[in-house]
Fold:
Amino acid sequence: MQDITCTLAILGSGPGGYVCALRAGQLGLDVVIVEGQKIGGTCLNVGCIPSKALIHAADEFERAAEMAAGRSPLGIAIAEPTIDLKQTMAWKDATVARLTGGVANLLKRNKVKVVSGTARFRDGKTLEVETETGRQIIRAEAIVIATGSEPSALPTLPFGGRVISSTEALALDRPPEKLVVVGAGYIGLELGTAYAKLGSEVTLVEAEPRILPLYDAELTRPVAKRLSALGVKVLTGAKAIGLSGKGDALLVEKADRSEARLEADKILVTVGRRPALEGWGREELVLDLDGRFLRIDDQCRTSMRGVYAIGDVTGEPMLAHRAMAQGEMVAEIVAGHRRSWDKRAIPAVCFTDPEIVTAGLSPEAAAKQGREIKVGLFPFSASGRAMTKLGEEGFVRVVARADNHLLLGVQAVGRDVSELAAAFGLALEMGACLEDVAGAIHAHPTLGEAFQEAALRALGRALHF
Amino acid sequence: MAEFVIKLPDVGEGVAEAELVEWRVKVGDLVREDEILAAVMTDKATVEIPSPVNGEVAWLAAAVGEFVAVGSPLVRLGVKGAASEKAPEPAAPASAPAPRTEAPPPSAPSPSVPKVEGERPLASPAVRQRAREAGIDLRQVAGSGPAGRILQADLDAFVAGGRREQAPGLQRRHGLEDIKLVGMRRRIAEKMALANARIPHITYVEEIDVQALEELRAALNKQKRPGQPRLTLLPFLMRAMARALEEQPDLNALFDDDAGILHRHRAIHIGVATQTPAGLAVPVVRHAEARDLWDCASELERLAQAARAGVASRDELTGSTITITSLGAMGGVATTPILNPPEVAIVGVNKIMTRPHWDGAGFTPRKMMNLSSSFDHRIIDGWDAATFVQRIKTLLETPALIFVGV
Structure:
């Protein structure tokens, strides 16, 4: 097979890799992207997209079940709903296929060459790809490592049998009767909640004293409340010890040191994700690590000249949109533009019930930096729009500097607040002050008004509270 | 997280404090065991301070250029684990003898609003990108927006006032950069100023025919035994100086001008000015009077390597009684060496060049080299200086004389 020589080779076609390829293609670079599995990486195939599809289906089903149970305040009564999870999964897969197909088309349109196969570095300028038709050598002036991450396993609970990762949880053909979720971070909560709504009896096991330990208690309280309403059992401060002898239950050590046995048809382990550092020939290179991640500088350069890294292999937060922004930047750097990482905020969303959005600094983090801050919180219980869509739980909270009112962070929890992430991110990135947010007309009646009202409240002049 | 305090260790005999010349870490960095945290300098030796543990840097004792007392806290690390291995000290002043250095004056040509140090300039992504592409550091731009936000108009004003957009052709440049002299550079500066201000120098330049010497050197290098160093010109010069100084002991002396005493040294310790990555260092070949040619060569090679690698000890870098300065191939035609006080003589080696030489009947090509030597004119008269250099000239031009006792 003839060797390929190109300007830019990208290892991995997840959101970081494919965006990097698209932008590089737009800039007229000669680009090759190598993917060992499906185009789109974790995000499109076994992450963001399929999980949102499943969560949506679960929400719809649960709403119908509430109506059937005569609990709908809207006066709608329907017959008991049923769900064919196989069909749900087929719809989800079709959605994923449309998106991955779309990415493949975009790559083609931008003249990006896609090579399918397992790639290994031979050296810092050369990749060897095992393709179906044989070995392909790719020589590139610059190479981007965008290999992503994979679910972490617990040593006491290796994946296999009843013990599954998020990937398998997104492909079940029926809801497990009893589901135990180990790790109550956002992935465990999203999937655990969805299956609870689909009829599974769900137990969450979390080692920390509360769910979503990386978020403050005020933000997670509505989520905890909703979990209990859904009948999800939450064991905090509990440690998974291992499977029972027959393998049909999880043994846990509870907060009071007593041992408990949790019957389970499936045990979903969501204890975080680890960077994919193996299997692509890292040992052929001299790449410095930063903790468990690849070390990069503010231009995503690794310790080797011409070798860049983006996305989950480079550190927290492991989020698709961070990888995308890095990919775009690296493409421009390779094309000779002056760029460096200067983003002010990377918003993060938990698609829990209700949803959580964070962008910038929390009050706690700002105080830890020794800043004098003003905080303004506006509850959805005072929002007309929230009332009319049965989503009064939650709030929007702004954090700003006390002296010049510069916005430092925004957090929200509530039904459908994920869509507010755009407004929060834009305000922070533009360097908005409380007065800017307060002074911009926010359409009525929308949830976004709560952002404006929170800013007004921080300024001491909330109108609707 | 527990706290682990790293104190400045005893970095040399009788050293009470050391100058902090480089931080390799900043607050918030995660460091691994054995990672170098800082470099400190005492007299002329630079010592690297490694971290004994893994941890996160929480506090640094001093700014570069400040002095830190031996035994006082240098770095505080946040470390995992329950009890700290060393109890945190009460917050003693880190660098008692070090006065707080003042921040350098702002180098911006434009007025700038006071900004909290380390804070990123406040500007929208569009303004940031435009500034980056125009090569403008936004920290230099005054922001007129709320909270000091830099607007497109502020960038326009900065561009119009300070500089024009990248037009073809030659550009005027503005602005200045202030570099604080620290460490070795500062010491060199002080010593040079002292030497030049206090000592009336006399510099004497003489031409030397090194044809015979170069032939001898080539022959010796050709038949050297394995393990023997390659001979350069310097060991020959050292031997010649040792011979010449036997006859003129006043030149191998240290002049204590405050006390009015000339200390004539019997041992000849020849300092050899050496360029190192950190600046000029002067490793010392001790007892040149007792070393033969090969010995001088191997000692010189060892010291030069140690100095360049920054591992030369304090003893190896001090105590010379006379100095050689050589720029090798960069040596030029003549130089005006500055004395290494309190020494009274310094011998400068210029570049060897093949020059036409009139031998009475015609021109022949000869390898020629100049020596540019400076002397403390308070102690050394012109006559003595000339005598010394002429003696060296004789020895180098007829190299056998270096080795034959007379």
